[in-house]
DNA sequence: AAGTTTGTCAACCGCCTGGAT
DNA sequence: AATCCAGGCGGTTGACAAACT
């Protein structure tokens, strides 16, 4: 037996909501609350189906909605959550009070996907796109792509490359367990990232792992490692206040242990390059 | 100025889930 | 156990605006 429609659609209004309809819905909900969405349109005097009322309230009218553009920090968090959860928009949205799943889904489809592709990252798998599979067939040079992703600012391009080199060296130091040197380099990297509000991906040449490093507003450097062969990913973060304490030692150890578990996937090759 | 393309996002559709009976 | 049903979810559409030719 087929599913019954949620309501009798005959005579019901569709399409964009008018101010008058919005007003009726807001007034009704604020005065009566929500017991049953099916009854809301009847009781509120609206020629809409219950589902339509629910959607309008949740996505547009409820008072606790956060308006305005998503910040870069929120965007980075969405990317991180999407890597873990996939297209589970409501789960992702639950991490952002005042943001709706619809809003985040739209933002992902219209902006973040493009941004990731520009950086050479497959938005579906979150792994680097191999140059041969790169969707941008226009033979853009690496520096042109970097410029585009950073708003065409020469200075930032140069710092972006320097930061990548710093992080690559830091990882090499970690690999050699030279913590004090790694601490110094990571601190430099952190400062550079924070001062230029940027993120970047580095990737081992001829290997299957990639690294995403970024800073965010609470002064942390996060490093996500993705291993395409093992289909694993992991994330480690350091905070400014812990970068000179024993916590960093733990951080270095956790990176070490994670990477040694990935041995055999080519991580030991340190001839890394910027990958866009 | 006019026509076309591209980007954005509110709203809809249909399936899924879980509680009630 | 089977069925019904409301609410929830993710994919998709289409109207509108902005950018481009």
UniProtKB/TrEMBL annotation:
Gene Ontology molecular functions: transcription cis-regulatory region binding
GO biological process, one term: regulation of DNA-templated transcription
SUPFAM superfamilies per the UniProt record, alphabetical: Homeodomain-like
Annotated HTH myb-type domain residues: 9-61, 62-116
UniProt keyword Zinc, yes or no: no
Keyword set, alphabetical order: DNA-binding, Nucleus, Repeat, Transcription, Transcription regulation
Domain Myb-like: 9-61, 62-112
Source species, domain of life: Eukaryota
Subcellular location: Nucleus
Native source species: Sesamum indicum
DNA-binding found in the keyword field: yes
Pfam families (alphabetical): Myb_DNA-binding (PF00249)
GO cellular component term of the entry, any: nucleus
Matching PANTHER family: F14D16.11-RELATED (PTHR47994:SF5)
PROSITE patterns referenced in this protein's UniProt entry, alphabetically: HTH_MYB, MYB_LIKE
Stated name of the protein: Myb-related protein 315-like
């Amino acid at each position: 037996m087929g599913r019954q429609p949620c309501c009798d659609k005959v005579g019901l209004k569709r399409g964009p909501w008018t101010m008058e309809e919005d007003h009726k819905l807001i007034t009704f909900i604020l005065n009566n609350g929500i017991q049953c969405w099916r009854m809301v349109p009847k009781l509120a005097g609206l020629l809409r189906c219950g589902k339509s009322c629910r959607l309008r309230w949740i996505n547009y009218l409820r008072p606790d909605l956060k308006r305005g553009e998503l910040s870069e920090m929120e965007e980075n968090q969405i990317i991180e959550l999407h890597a873990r959860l996939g297209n589970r928009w409501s789960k992702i949205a639950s991490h952002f009070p005042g943001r709706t799943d619809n809003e985040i889904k739209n933002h992902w489809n219209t902006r973040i996907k493009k941004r990731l592709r520009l950086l050479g990252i497959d938005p579906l798998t979150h792994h680097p796109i191999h140059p041969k599979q790169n969707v941008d067939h226009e033979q853009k040079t690496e520096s042109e792509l970097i410029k585009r992703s950073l708003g065409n600012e020469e200075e930032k391009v140069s710092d972006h490359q320097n930061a990548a080199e710093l992080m690559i060296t830091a990882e090499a130091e970690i690999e050699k367990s030279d913590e004090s040197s790694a601490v110094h380099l990571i601190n430099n990297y952190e400062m550079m990232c924070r001062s230029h509000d940027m993120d970047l991906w580095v990737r081992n040449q001829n290997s299957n792992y990639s690294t995403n490093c970024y800073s965010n507003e609470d002064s942390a450097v996060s490093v996500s490692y993705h291993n395409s062969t093992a289909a694993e990913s992991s994330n480690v973060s350091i905070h400014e206040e812990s970068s000179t304490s024993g916590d960093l030692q733990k951080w270095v150890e956790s990176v070490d242990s994670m990477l040694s578990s990935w041995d055999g996937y080519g991580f030991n090759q340190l001839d890394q390059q910027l990958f866009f």
